[in-house]
Design brief:
about 290 residues; alpha/beta; about 15% strand
């Protein structure tokens, strides 16, 4: 495969330099050349290298749809999806699968419950019009950690998140504060969560009211009413994992995954295989043109 790559790129880069960088000998390359491989075999070698590069760019999580898009948009390669799948299989490359999520909601409380105003309509016309939030668990060697997030439905951007070893109202309030500080949305934003006691608590409802947000809650025991956050948690645990050495390790890993990769780089299928940040930037450019 390395010799095929050198053959494909020798018009652009010196053979000796490429052989040295790839850890192969020039004599071996020229012997390979003498065998006169077919143009398609040479092309397959170059494409296998690019497929591996695209897979690594996706932090070894991308399946064929995202690798296909990465090859087209980043490397300028016109290639069919079936060929991408074949090249992935030849190298043992595969995307990750989502894990089943365990619910953390405790709706057995005496707080008032808001009606379901979202009604599974996960569309938004612009950023900061509709947010959704939820909590999940993480494992560490010293016990459980809990992660609360808030996503913007327009772009799936994680606008706020927080972790704690206690699953209480302070956890969700911290995520809400990050979202408000980062976005400073206008009053009237629809804020949707489940009926958990953390979200129904007086403190959280007062925080929503102070911002002029409209509260919406899922129906009891219906995970599909908050499917976007459920999907995010499934993606996060499949691609990052849910077990960490310590809270510090978890916090560093989550910051890297959420802020560096997921929000700004990861290709999202519902956004046409661009990142949440790119989707918002395109919207802003279109509305200010």
């Amino acid at each position: 495969m390395k010799f095929a790559f050198v053959a494909a790129e020798k018009a652009t880069w010196p053979v000796a330099w490429m052989c040295r960088k790839l850890g192969v000998s020039r004599s071996g390359f020229y012997a390979f050349q003498a065998r006169r491989e077919s143009p398609r075999a040479v092309d397959d070698g170059r494409l296998r290298m690019l497929v591996a590069v695209a897979h690594k760019a996706g932090r070894c999580t991308y399946g064929s749809p995202r690798i296909h898009r990465e090859l087209r948009e980043v490397h300028g390669v016109r290639i069919g999806r079936n060929r991408v799948i074949r090249l992935m299989r030849s190298q043992g490359i595969r995307g990750v699968s989502r894990r089943r999520r365990i619910r953390t909601t405790d709706s057995r409380h005496g707080f008032p419950v808001a009606p379901n105003l979202l009604m599974r309509d996960f569309r938004a016309d612009a950023p900061n019009h509709r947010w959704v939030g939820d909590i999940t668990y993480l494992r560490t060697e010293k016990g459980w950690l809990y992660l609360a997030v808030i996503l913007d439905l327009f772009s799936r951007y994680v606008v706020g998140w927080a972790i704690s070893d206690t699953i209480d109202r302070r956890l969700v309030l911290a995520a809400l504060k990050m979202a408000n500080d980062r976005r400073q949305p206008e009053p009237g934003l629809l804020h949707h969560t489940d009926q958990g006691c953390q979200y129904a608590s007086d403190d959280y409802q007062l925080a929503l009211g102070a911002e002029g947000f409209v509260c919406s809650m899922s129906r009891t025991g219906d995970c599909y009413d908050n499917a976007v956050v459920e999907s995010f948690f499934g993606t996060l645990k499949s691609e990052l994992g849910d077990t960490f050495d310590s809270r510090d390790h978890a916090e560093r890993a989550l910051f890297d995954y959420i802020e560096i990769f997921y929000n700004r780089a990861r290709r999202h299928s519902s956004l046409g295989y661009i990142s949440p940040a790119q989707h918002e930037e395109a919207f802003l450019a279109a509305t200010t043109a």
